[in-house]
Design a protein that fits this description.
single chain; 180 residues; mainly alpha; 3-stranded parallel sheet; globular
Length: 180
């Protein structure tokens, strides 16, 4: 289990890291600030875990906006490195990365929203089987990163929210302790 100090050490390393091909820092000031905010949240979660108060804080709901080419996907990749290298999280377990379109999801090593949420676009198949599989996948998940969120309709975003709330309400491990 990494400490808060180790997470901040990793962050400082990234602040100063230079791309050997360009000689430029891998994160500009704005990108660094975003990764810093995620690091701060991870530290907050570590403290909550050690105090056994997980779930006592509001979930982080946050959007990263910018015109094409400013480095939103690059910033997501650095956040994924933070999760993997500094926090020892595994993609598909403690965090999920998804997009509406398969091409975008694949570029980040993630999956489509429909797939990771078990939402059948065509309303075919056994919903209960899919629900059990999806619930098993989502129980250890702490973070959901959605790339190209502007492509998602408000209706689908509401469906995602409803699906996750229902799964956690029905099967969430943080809701009830060993004594019920």
């Amino acid at each position: 289990e990494p400490s808060a100090g180790e997470l901040y050490e990793w962050l400082e390393m990234k602040r100063n890291e230079v791309d050997p091909a360009t000689g430029k820092r891998i994160l500009n000031a704005e990108q660094f600030e975003i990764v810093r905010r995620v690091t701060d949240r991870l530290v907050e979660e570590l403290r909550a875990e050690s105090a056994h108060t997980v779930g006592a804080t509001e979930p982080l709901r946050w959007l990263l906006h910018g015109r094409p080419g400013v480095g939103k996907s690059h910033t997501i990749k650095v956040i994924m490195q933070l999760f993997k290298e500094a926090r020892k999280y595994t993609l598909g377990e403690e965090y999920q990365v998804a997009s509406l379109q398969a091409v975008t999801a694949t570029l980040l090593g993630g999956e489509t929203l429909h797939h990771i949420l078990g939402i059948n676009k065509y309303n075919r198949g056994d919903v209960n089987v899919a629900k059990e599989k999806v619930a098993k996948r989502w129980l250890p998940t702490r973070w959901l990163i959605i790339d190209e969120v502007s492509m998602i309709s408000a209706k689908f975003l509401a469906e995602i929210d409803c699906r996750l709330r229902t799964l956690m309400r029905e099967r969430g491990t943080y809701l009830v302790d060993g004594n019920g």
